[in-house]
Amino acid sequence: MKTSVTSIPPPLRTPLIRAGPLWIKAESAQRTGSAKYRMVAAKVDAALRSGRISDGTTLAEVTAGSTGVALAELGRALGLPVELHAYESIAPEKKAAIEERGARLVLHPASVPVSAMLDAVRRAVASGRTWHLNQYDRSSTVAAYGELADELLGQLRELNSPPRIFLCPVGTGGLIQGIGAALRGAFPGIRVVALEPEAGATIDGIRNTELVHQGPDDPYDKCFPDEVLRVPAPATIVAVAGRSLGESSTAAFLAASSRGWESTLILAPD
Q1: Whole-model pTM?
Q2: What is the CATH number of the domain that holds 126?
Q3: Which of 226, 196, 229, 231 lies closest to 211, judged by CA?
Q4: Rounded distance, CA 20 to CA 99, Å?
């Protein structure tokens, strides 16, 4: 049977790259080019083991892009249909990556709130034969990054390089909260800094949580980081050790470099 946990390609071990005083965890080397693959694979694995996904189940989610690409990839590997809801402003390359993997992509105008798209997915779940990834559930999404946290902590210990600052772009919020909590436990005193676009700027995959936040129902706790850094969109993409960073990772790299931060770990999600 194709729809089984053995059909899930496991996440790859990604490099921790040194760039002067910065360490960069390059998740662009992950399957589908994003850390979101880890979260999606962990949640799909758990749902298969519990029987919530079986042959013929439609996998569904609301996405800004990278999560959708990862879910489309897993759907293709498992032979399952995938339905994704996104805004019409989705990055063209993410749209193409989703569609080339055979997923159904439903685009919505900017006037439609995220909550309305989520309601559409929940109605499909209630009608049967649809499973919701639910990256907007805080506890399960944070927990889904546990393997990445263990991998990263192992790399840092091997290098004997405890970071003083952890800088991470904020999308849904599961990544900074999952990895940030693990780093605080391992390195007391580490400063967790959230990277967001400044007002009026658009950076692919991340959000300004002062402007876009669902309140108590949001997966991201705005009190979690020690500091919030809001920056403009980068004019160009940066390459480190021959590897191009994504837009949010480039913004994080430029922000840390311009401030002269040392002993800084950047989680580059794509």
Answers
A1: 0.93
A2: 3.40.50.1100
A3: 196
A4: 39
